[in-house]
Structures are given as structure tokens and as C-alpha cells.
Amino acid sequence: MRDKLSKHLFDPQSDASIESKLLKLLSLVRKHLSMEVAFISKFTNTERVFKVVDNQTTNTCVSVGNSDPICETYCKKISDNELEQIIPNTLEHPITRNMPVTEKLNIGSYIGVPIIYPPEKFMELFAVIKPY
């Protein structure tokens, strides 16, 4: 099965767009981790912008194209090494419990993984969220 999945997601002969392949990958990871939201976001100078989103909740804040001030996001804090990449309970965490984005995006559990491009510049983040 893994070979079939790998071929489907990464086959260069496939007609599927990169966005479609990334969405399938997000969905697989989200389901495997029993989370309800998965996304890839991009950093601009001032914002975190959602690029690819698999959202199974009614909260529409996490949607493609939506953004937040970068300084208010978990993504920025992770990139600055001010926050762990895995947070089992955001309401018990001393930093995330006081962040407005925790309530806005209804973040209960969070995993964020930096996507780094040479020369070691952090530009994007893959994350999954489970509401509280």
C-alpha cells in the first residue's frame, strides 16, 4: 500500500496539481494523527498565510488565503524557537493559553513542523490542529 500511495502522491507523470497532491498528503497525516485541521502556511514579512488547508471543522478562519499577523502565530514562535513543535494541550501551556489565536482558531492540540528552504531560511510551516 505504501508504494501505491507514494506513487500516487509523488508520481511525476500524474496529471494532479501539486496543490491536489499536498491536500491529499495533509488529509492522510491529519487522519493518521486523529486531528481535524491540517495546513501548510507561508510567511510574508508581516503575515502567516494559509496556502493548502484540509479543515474538517466549522471554523472557517483556517481557509486558503486567510491570514493573521505573523507576530501573533504559533508558527512564528516555533520559527523563533520560543515554542515547542508539539503542544498536547494549548490551554495548559504557559504561552499558548494566553495567545488570542488559540481561541480564534479553537486550538486544543497542535503540531507544527517548519519547512526550511536553503540557505536555512524558515519560510513555511506544516501544522495539524485538534480543537479543544
Distance between the termini: 33 Å
Strand content: 25-35%
Biggest β-sheet strands, sense, barrel: 6 strands, antiparallel
> Radius of gyration over alpha carbons?
15 Å
Note the run of SSEs as H and E: HHEEEHEHEE
- Structure class: alpha+beta
For the secondary structure, the number of strands is: 6
The pLDDT mean sits at 87
From the structure provided, what is the oligomeric state, counting identical versus distinct chains? single chain
Approximate helicity band: 25-40%
| Number of helical stretches of at least 4 residues | 4
- Uncertain ranges: none
Spatial arrangement of strands, main beta sheet: 3-2-1-6-5-4
Shape: globular
Explain the overall architecture.
The chain is globular, with a radius of gyration of 15 Å. It contains four helices and six strands, in the order H-H-E-E-E-H-E-H-E-E. A hairpin with a 3-residue loop joins strand 1 and strand 2. The protein has 132 residues and is α+β, with helices and mostly antiparallel strands. The chain has a six-stranded antiparallel beta sheet with strand order 3-2-1-6-5-4.
What topology does this entry show?
Blueprint: H1 2-10, H2 18-32, E1 37-43, E2 47-55, E3 67-69, H3 74-79, E4 86-87, H4 100-104, E5 109-117, E6 121-130
Antiparallel strand pairs: 1-2, 1-6, 2-3, 4-5, 5-6
Based on the model shown, name its key terms.
six-stranded antiparallel β-sheet; globular; alpha+beta; 6 strands
Give a brief rundown of this model.
The chain has 132 residues and is of the alpha+beta class. The chain has helices at 2-10, 18-32, 74-79, 100-104; strands at residues 37-43, 47-55, 67-69, 86-87, 109-117, 121-130. Strands 3-2-1-6-5-4 form a six-stranded antiparallel sheet.
